[in-house]
Amino acid sequence: MSIATQSTEPGLILALSKGRIFDDTLPLLASAGISVLENPETSRKLILATNDPGVRVLIVRATDVPTYVQYGAADFGVAGKDVLLEHGGEGLYQPVDLNIAACRMSVAVNAGFDYESAVRQGARLRVATKFVNTARQHFASKGVHVDLIKLYGSMELAPLVGLSDAIVDVVSTGNTLRANNLVEVEKIMEISSRLVVNQAALKLKRARLQPIIEAFERASKTQG
Ligand code: ADP
Ligand code: PRP
Ligand code: MG
């Protein structure tokens, strides 16, 4: 069945990204009685069947999850708060903090760079990040002038090669920062992943969605 036939076959479509979000969502799906029949790490398929013929899973890039849900190409999805803040959340209902993929958004600099002094002296900082909206808002709220450089990954490299004075990125264990001789100088916010639901789907498919949302909510209380 193609997605184009969705209107006559009101199945549910869940958007997930490969890796930690997919892996951490599996137990939540299991709590709703749903198991995904294929492994996205080994299959090249982008639409995965589940044991429930009424539920399918789309495999998309993490930053694309809100877009698929916003436009209704997926009825619901799981995305990090970092990604949702960059997207803006338009058209999305966010009923549950799933407490998965927990990390923090931080500012980091080269170990030898005196960030506090630079800020105190009103220096203009070059900041490399994937999270330009969050970074812009953070530095504006502190009254720090920054030039933002948009990157798509490996942010930790930027200060090492003189591309930027600082980075804004997610940190979990701190291993990546340590391995690259960077230090975390400011925590911007705690991050976890959220269930997001298309607002129209929430009304039209509530009977099917609600039990899954409730199962996710119950199961996520035991995650950490
Ligand atoms: P991407 O390919 O976009 O980097 P990830 O699977 O790495 O996708 O990240 C998905 C989400 O998981 C991010 O939006 C963030 O909320 C969270 N995340 C990213 N890195 C980590 C980490 N090291 N530990 C825990 N959660 C993380
Ligand atoms: C993320 C993030 C950091 C790292 C932080 O990268 O962009 O580089 O995790 O985690 P740590 O503090 O535990 O080291 P990820 O593993 O997702 O790699 P990628 O996004 O570059 O593929
Ligand atoms: Mg990543």
UniProtKB/TrEMBL annotation:
One example GO MF annotation: ATP phosphoribosyltransferase activity
Principal location listed in the UniProt entry: cytoplasm
Domain spans labelled ATP phosphoribosyltransferase catalytic: 61-217
Catalytic activity, as annotated: 1-(5-phospho-beta-D-ribosyl)-ATP + diphosphate = 5-phospho-alpha-D-ribose 1-diphosphate + ATP
Keywords for the protein's UniProt record, in alphabetical order: Amino-acid biosynthesis, ATP-binding, Cytoplasm, Glycosyltransferase, Histidine biosynthesis, Nucleotide-binding, Transferase
EC number: 2.4.2.17
Top-level EC class as recorded in UniProt: transferase
Subcellular location per the Swiss-Prot or TrEMBL entry: Cytoplasm
Domain remark text: Lacks the C-terminal regulatory region which is replaced by HisZ.
Functional summary from the UniProt entry: Catalyzes the condensation of ATP and 5-phosphoribose 1-diphosphate to form N'-(5'-phosphoribosyl)-ATP (PR-ATP). Has a crucial role in the pathway because the rate of histidine biosynthesis seems to be controlled primarily by regulation of HisG enzymatic activity.
HAMAP family per UniProt: HisG_Short
Stored PANTHER family: ATP PHOSPHORIBOSYLTRANSFERASE, ATP PHOSPHORIBOSYLTRANSFERASE ATP-PRTASE
Subunit structure: Heteromultimer composed of HisG and HisZ subunits.
The protein, known as: ATP phosphoribosyltransferase
